[in-house]
Design brief:
mainly alpha; Multidrug-efflux Transporter Regulator, Chain: A, Domain 2; DNA-binding
Chain lengths: 137, 137
DNA sequence: TCTTGACCTTCCAGTGACTGGAAGGATTAG
DNA sequence: CTAATCCTTCCAGTCACTGGAAGGTCAAGA
C-alpha cells in the first residue's frame, strides 16, 4: 500500500513516516514507480511506534523496544525496567510542573489584573516583590 | 563585569547569556579588549529572564514580559492574562502526564518482569494484548 | 485525448532553546 | 616566562518532526 494508506492505518502523518524511514525505523519496499510500498507488518511496526511514542518513549527507546520485541530471547524484565524508568520520569515531570504551578498561582491570585500599572507578577520576576515572599531564589 | 561574573550573579550559564545576546534579549557593552561588559541592570535583566524561564515562559513570552516590564503604561491585566494562560498550559501538561501514567502503570503492574520472554508491555505496544484492555486506541 | 486534481517523490530549511567543541586571543598568578 | 584560566567567534548538533518548493505519477471525467 502507498504511504497515504499506511498513514491512515497507523495514525502517523506521512511526513513522520518518511522521517522514520530516514532514521531507519522502517524500511518499506519500493514500487516500480518509486512509490513506497508498505506491507501489513510495516504498518504494524508503525502502529507500535505510534503507541510507544504516545506513551512517552523517545525515538531511541522505541528503537530498543522494537529490537526487544523481535528478540525471542529477551526477558520481560528488560522491558519492565524501561517502563518503570519512564514512569519515574513522568512522576518527576509532574512534580516539577506542580511546583511551577505553586510558584505561579499565588502571583496570579494577588495580581489585581486591572488597568493600573502595578503588577505583582512583574515585581516578582524583577526580584523586588516587596513584602511578598520571593517565589524564586 | 565580565560574562563569568554575570553568569554567577544571574545563575545562567555563560553560553546561554551569549545566546540571549544573539537573539537580542540583552545588549551588554564591550570593553576595549572585546570582552562583554555587563552592567548591574544587564544582570537584573538576566535574572528576570532566568526567573521567567523557570516559571515556564517561552523566550518570546519573556521578550513580551520584558517589554511590559519597562512599559510605564501597561496594565497589570495584560501580565495576569499571560500568567493565567501559562497556568492553564501547566494544568494541561499535568493532566496529559497523568493520563500517560495511568496508561503505563497497569502495564508495568501486570508484567511479571522475570526471565521469561512473555511481556504484557510489548504485547500492548504491538496491539494484541489478549484479554487485557488495549491501552491505546 | 486532454486536463484536472490528488497523490507521490526528493531536498532544503526551520523549529526551541540551548549545548559542545574547536581554534585562538587576553589576562592573571607565580 | 609560563601555565592556567578566562574570554572571543564560529560551526555543528540536539530532538522529533514540520513546512514548503519543485516536480513526477496516477485515476477519473469531459
Amino acid at each position: 500500500m502507498n504511504i497515504g494508506e499506511a498513514s491512515e492505518r497507523s495514525g502517523l502523518p506521512a511526513k513522520t513516516i518518511r522521517y522514520y524511514e530516514d532514521i531507519s525505523l522502517v524500511a518499506p519496499d519500493r514500487a516500480d514507480n518509486g512509490y513506497r510500498d508498505y506491507s501489513a507488518s510495516d504498518v504494524h511496526r508503525l502502529r507500535f511506534l505510534h503507541r510507544a511514542r504516545n506513551l512517552g518513549f523517545s525515538i531511541d527507546e522505541c528503537r530498543l523496544l522494537l529490537s526487544l520485541y523481535s528478540d525471542r530471547n529477551r526477558a520481560s524484565s528488560d522491558v519492565k525496567a524501561m517502563a518503570e524508568q519512564k514512569l519515574s520520569e513522568i512522576d518527576a515531570k509532574i512534580a516539577e510542573l506542580q511546583s511551577l504551578k505553586s510558584a505561579l498561582q499565588p502571583l496570579v491570585d494577588c495580581c489585581h489584573g486591572d488597568d493600573r500599572p502595578d503588577c505583582p507578577i512583574l515585581d516578582d520576576l524583577a526580584g523586588h516583590g516587596g513584602r511578598r515572599a520571593q517565589v524564586l531564589a
